[in-house]
Design brief:
By secondary structure, the protein is of the alpha+beta class. Among the domains are: 2-42 and 115-161, no CATH class; 298-445, no CATH class; 452-487. The chain has helices at residues 2-8, 10-19, 28-35, 47-57, 60-66, 115-133, 147-161, 164-178, 229-234, 239-260, 298-312, 316-326, 335-348, 397-400, 408-427, 433-437, 441-445, 447-466, 470-486, and strands at 67-70, 76-77, 81-88, 104-111, 139-140, 143-144, 201-202, 215-219, 224-225, 262-264, 272-276, 283-287, 293-295, 356-357, 364-365. Strands 1, 2, 3, 4 and 8 form a five-stranded antiparallel sheet that branches. A hairpin with a 2-residue loop joins strand 5 and strand 6. Helix 1 runs antiparallel to helix 2 (10-19), helix 11 (298-312) runs antiparallel to helix 12 and helix 12 (316-326) crosses helix 13. The longest helix has 22 residues, at 239-260. The radius of gyration is 25 Å and the shape is globular.
């Protein structure tokens, strides 16, 4: 199957890569075959590569003015382009004058020839095929989907990816959000209340002024592919190091989803590497390729964070409230049956959380507690929510699916989570996103907000357990606060 798509050309290769991430859409053996497309893509070399580069730069003269040298043998090939090594001339700088020294290596990503023309013709044909496919019903995860809907979403992704200027802007935003500068140095993140991630995360610096729609010039950041375990072992990356890298992946996506409100939708192994820091010998995660990225609204980001906390606390009503905030429940949804289904998932262990170690601190944390040593345990095992009554009627998936809708942004979130889970489990078989990201909730929320929220939750639970009147408690608190203020 993958060999046939390779012969058909770049568009079919890209679609195969996208479909390889839709486990529920295709049989497992198909997904396995299509995953080969993440690595096996033909590339041009020699004079053909030089002509491709000159055309992408705009002219031979401009390319000669910018580059001291250009290696015409690609170091990597993807569905839409190929990557070559080059050396900048000493007088060439970026928009912020970084760097300006001799022998600066760059990775040059060059788009394949006539890509937009190929897309226009092939996508017009595929649109007709998708409409024909709509005659056959398709069920994905319990919800009905049409081939036309899937094609429409895929078409947007594909056209967005063939503009390297968009990718350059995405990569720059990602680096700024995490506080990562040239050569992996620490800079102030977009949100100054968050720490720089430069000690555990790396991404190439982008020369935006040298890039255009067809070419992307970026810092050369060599690394080992994240699932090349033999190569990782050869540079002394141990199993604890791999566990740490899996946690870094989860930590990065917690920040992307819930703080940055901007995330890479495509964290497959071909876009992730491992760099061993020379000074410390510690590994750090490397992100490449931001052709596919997505933004979230504030309510969406806050809703995702609330869902994560709801799962950590086994709080079914809290999860459903977060679903509503996220906008994934249809108007008039039966919140009672949705809540019962979530609670049922908790009670049966279908959705669960577990203890794990923070790779930074080497301590074990219960997921109902804070981490990083900032806040002591403030919740106990008594914090478990009321289990589903034994005689309660079981709620089936089909009973709640009609109450859910999936805005486009969450389709990308689901895709990123799916790919991240596969990579995470390859590094650490015990990996799950909620458990791995739990120690960093306080980082995203801030210590003060985290403590205030936890105390409020604990207070509400004890009011419920003791059967107290919430309004009376509120009145008492107001009197106490007023007296404190007067004094």
């Amino acid at each position: 199957m993958s060999d046939g798509l390779l012969k058909l050309g770049p568009l079919y290769i890209k679609i195969g890569q996208i479909l390889s991430c839709r486990e529920k859409l295709l049989p497992p053996e198909w997904v396995t075959a299509l995953e080969r497309l993440q690595d096996r893509v033909p590339a041009k070399s020699g004079e053909d590569a030089l002509e491709l580069a000159r055309s992408a730069f705009g002219s031979k003269e401009f390319m000669d003015d910018v580059l001291e040298s250009f290696d015409d043998v690609p170091i990597a090939a993807a569905s839409l382009g190929q990557v070559h090594l080059g050396v900048l001339k000493p007088n060439v700088t970026s928009v912020d004058s970084m760097p300006n020294s001799k022998n600066v290596k760059v990775a040059i990503k060059i788009q394949r020839a006539r890509l937009r023309d190929i897309y226009d013709k092939d996508l017009a044909l595929m649109k007709k095929i998708a409409k024909m496919g709509d005659k056959f019903s398709m069920d994905v995860g319990g919800a009905k989907q049409s081939w036309s809907d899937i094609f429409q979403d895929t078409e947007k992704i594909l056209y967005r990816e063939i503009d390297y200027q968009t990718e350059a802007r995405n990569a720059i935003q990602f680096a700024l959000d995490f506080g990562i500068g040239y050569d992996g140095t620490s800079i102030t993140p977009t949100n100054p209340e968050l720490p720089s991630a430069s000690s555990w995360l790396r991404t190439p610096y982008i020369y935006e002024n040298l890039s255009n729609e067809k070419i992307l010039v970026q810092e050369y950041v060599p690394s080992i592919k994240i699932n090349d375990f033999d190569a990782l072992k050869n540079v002394n990356v141990t199993q604890p190091d791999r566990d740490f890298l899996a946690e870094c992946l989860a930590r990065s996506y917690l920040r992307q989803f819930c703080s940055n409100q901007f995330f890479s939708t495509d964290p497959h192994p071909g876009n992730l590497g491992v760099e061993v820091i020379k000074e410390t010998g510690r590994p750090r995660l490397v992100f490449y390729d931001f052709g596919q990225a997505c933004s979230l609204q504030k309510d969406q980001a806050e809703g995702i964070l609330s869902v994560i906390e709801g799962i950590m606390d086994l709080d079914a009503p809290g999860c459903v409230q977060a679903f509503d905030q996220m906008g994934v429940l249809v108007k008039g949804a039966d919140l009672d049956i949705v809540t019962r289904k979530v609670q049922q998932n908790f009670d049966t262990g279908k959705v669960k959380v577990k203890k794990r170690k923070s790779m930074n601190e080497g301590e074990t944390y219960d997921l109902t507690t804070e981490s990083n040593g900032m806040v002591s345990e403030i919740e106990s095992s008594e914090n478990q929510k009321k289990p589903l009554a034994q005689n309660a009627e079981t709620v089936q998936d089909k009973d709640v699916m009609p109450y859910f809708t999936l805005p486009a942004e969450y389709a990308f979130v689901a895709r990123a989570l799916s790919q991240m889970d596969g990579v995470g489990k390859s590094l650490d078989p015990e990996f799950d996103f909620i458990s791995a990201s739990a120690p960093y909730i306080v980082e995203v929320k801030g210590v003060k907000t985290f403590v205030v929220d936890k105390v409020a939750k604990l207070e509400a639970e004890w009011i419920e357990k003791l059967g107290l009147d919430p309004e009376k408690i509120k009145g008492i608190k107001n009197v106490i606060q007023k007296r404190s203020f007067d004094e």
